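Predict fold of Alpha-amylase; 553 aa.
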Amino acid sequence: MINDLWYKNAVIYCLSVETFMDANGDGVGDFQGLMRRLDYLSGLGVTAIWLMPFQASPGRDDGYDVSDYYNVDPRYGSLGDFVEFTHGAKQRGIRVLIDLVINHTSKDHPWFQDARSDPRSRYRDWYVWSEKKPDNADQGMVFPGVQKTTWTYDDKAKAYYFHRFYDHQPDLNTSNSDVQAEILKIMGFWIQLGVSGFRMDAAPFIIATKGADVTKPVEQFDMLRKFREFLQWRLGDSIILAEANILPKDNFEYFGDDGDRMQMMFNFQVNQALFYALASADTRPLKKAMEATKPRPATAQWGLFLRNHDELDLGRLTEKQRGAVFAAFGPEKDMQLYDRGIRRRLAPMLGGDHRRIEMAYSLLFSLPGTPVIRYGDEIGMGDDLGLPERNCARTPMQWSTEPEGGFTKSEKPISPVIKDGPYGFQHVNVAEQRRDPNSLLNWTERMIRMRKEAPEIGWGDFSVIDTGNDGVLALRYDWRGNSVLILHNLHAQPAEVTFDPDRGEDGRLLIDIADGASSKADEKGFHTVMLDAYGYRWYRVGGLDYLLRRTEI
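Predicted 3D structure, encoded as tokens:
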């Protein structure tokens, strides 16, 4: 049972094939290049890789406009290269998750081309059509300020088609049983090629009813169970990690009351509150978000993250909270996107302050769930705000001081490598940080190892410990008779806190597993700890013989 729930104590690394390494010399990352970097990922300690889209695509939306679900984009290699990659990952104990982009296809997909060509086409009902432009066509855009409508007229079809995203991405009619059967076939295909699961893109839109007469979409949650059942019949320990920016009251609809729908979801509620905490040193909304998302089925898990490949969406915060985050991390207009978020990478958002970056990632690794880190953040990569929309944070990985950062031998990579300023590849790269014992890269490797040795966080239950300081977060995790207690100071100045671990006699001794600064309680059972500015402490409660004391399930 525990092996089937491998995701409960995993560390997931998100990357894009096209930006990781180019072995072919054409300026585009490929699977051969990714194969050559598997040892790097293994050394870093990650247990799973999440690959952004790599299937055949015109590339208008970084591969999220798929034109063939059953093939690799030729720029990245072949299906043979992909199988060699999944095999290499398996040899190193790394699982592979891939993006499942099934809310829409590219308008170049043969299904859509056939559907628009003939109203009697078998694919006509695979998409959503209307003879007249619906009255609500100017509502519900995913990319406000960039996207003008959700319905576009097609001259050949002589009808309007629905697209929740860009007009080159027509929505699939996911209520259609034939479409659902095809989705299962797509999942089965990639599972057969070595994939361990999927990150389901835009999950709420996939299960929502669609059509010209739909004014309030209804979510078809049974669809999620259908996907889950099929996947686990094919591969028992495979998972779906759903992208669903939803309210806590809807969590069980996606997980399933019995844990029979999605195994994992990203915790957007905690993510947004976390950035408010980083901006304001006020952890109260973060504690509230963690408590609100605490209930979940025993087999379900949250995916926790700081930054991903999209904008930092702040739509769940209050106007005042959102203003504080914008002021701290994205004050300039070109740093913001879609009237709701920030498009920068983490390091420049935090001013390149390594103390603060380390504290932020330590905090991420200590939150209830499974940490998901993004390629390049382990070395503190920056962004290129001169690139459009979200592309500014999707620049190639910086491996060395070689030309183009060691990403490619080509002088013209598909996306420009960051060359100028403090985040240029000459200053921020893997090779130099690998040789520096005090680098962010080596710190991240140690942190991943420490996180994997604290399964209480992934498996256990958490309690918020009162420190008397809203800028210091104290979390205690309990699992199988053992506990860890973790402190974070979000203030820019040192803070002294006094607290009771609330673990009886065991709580009298706290062993620091990060740097050895242990703590003994006073006669009343209270600990007093001094934390540096942006400081943190990871404590084992009661001593280091916890493996001997761990109870059986």
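The longest helix spans residues 177-192.
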